[in-house]
Amino acid sequence: MTPGSRASGTPRDVRLCLLGYGNVARAFCDLLARQERQLADRHGLRLLVNAVGTRHGSLLAPGGLPPAAVLATIGARPAPPQAPLPAAELLAASAADILVELTVLEHDGAPLSTGHVLAAIELGMHVVTANKGPIAWNWRGIADVARAAERRVRFESAVMDGLPVFSLLDFTLPDCALLGFEAVFNATTNSILEAMGSGQSLADALADAQAQGFAEADPSNDLDGWDAAYKAAALANAAMDARMTPLDVARERLTDVPLQRVLRAREHGKRLRLVTSVRRETPAGVAPEAGSATSAGPIRACVQAAELDIDHPLAALSGDSLGVVLHTDLMGDLVVSELHGLVPQTAYGVYADILHICA
């Protein structure tokens, strides 16, 4: 099923159900409102929100609301104005074409968000999510269900905001196999390490990061390497058929990296970065078969502090910059990076995924 239907010369309606309504969802609705004319003129689309659901409230509009009306209706409320509904009930009542899954990250298998994705597919919806949990824990099962139902699941914003990593691999590198990657995935730890390189203690650097909005009130998910581990598993699962979970990623905690190590790297003309590395092992003397990332051995993944030469592409990333070096069989090594990994970029990744689905 192609989302919506379209009469000649008129935009076709595409109905969205939003699960989760935090900063990313608000930024996404704002982006849709600003792009309304562009969506109609260039893509022949009118995107309407039929439902919004959170744990604390819901908004059900069977006829569909323009995104600007959603923003006006919910406004500064802490939650949508109607009584909360169970996610399965809201999904069924929405009659949406696409689920936009923006709920908070879960640990221990991401059962709720994975359930949202699977329920939406079973109802005939495509899915766009910025939640890395389902992809990091359960991608193979989700992919099998989506393929059988002829539905599409896209998740560009799950790993590096809107930075087009999955789209790059899917649409611009035909027949290329991803053999591995190194990445700086986490803006919080990156900004803290940059501040420590100037002599700040970890505690002071963390306080500054929290004041600037890089770090959460509880930063343990970032400092303990879990955020990067989730992203490593998500990218490896979707792009390398790794069939791994975040528990398979070895982690070095930033709290275990002494200030002296950061300063010593600077003294030697290097930069310390918390680098996520994933690579498929190959038996000695055996080269991977071109075009097939599954012809070699098991995949190893880790998050660890690494001293990088100053001319290494990941060494140049500072503050809220993120980047990844992709190792491919046919195209060699590619570097993709963004200068600012913030909420607007995450919202754009969701927007781009919807356009890919509707193309």
Describe this structure in words.
- By secondary structure, this protein is an alpha/beta fold.
- The chain has two domains: 12-163 and 345-358, Rossmann fold; 178-340, Dihydrodipicolinate Reductase, domain 2 (2-Layer Sandwich).
- Helices cover 40% and strands 22% of the residues.
- The protein has 14 helices and twelve strands.
- It has a six-stranded mixed sheet with strand order 3-2-1-4-5-6, sandwiched between helices. A six-stranded mixed sheet has the order 8-10-9-7-11-12.
- Strand 4 (98-101), helix 5 (111-122) and strand 5 form a beta-alpha-beta unit.
- The chain is globular and about 65 Å long.
- The two termini are 12 Å apart.
Fill in the keyword field for this structure:
single chain, 359 residues, alpha/beta, Rossmann fold, Dihydrodipicolinate Reductase, domain 2, 2 domains, six-stranded mixed beta sheet, 22% strand
Could you give a quick summary of the protein structure above?
The chain is an alpha/beta fold. The chain is 40% helix and 22% strand.
- First-to-last CA distance: 12 Å
Give the % helix: 25-40%
Helix and strand sequence: EHHEEHHEHEHEHHEHHHHEHEEEEH
The third-level CATH topology of the largest domain is Rossmann fold
Write the CATH architecture name of the largest domain: 3-Layer(aba) Sandwich
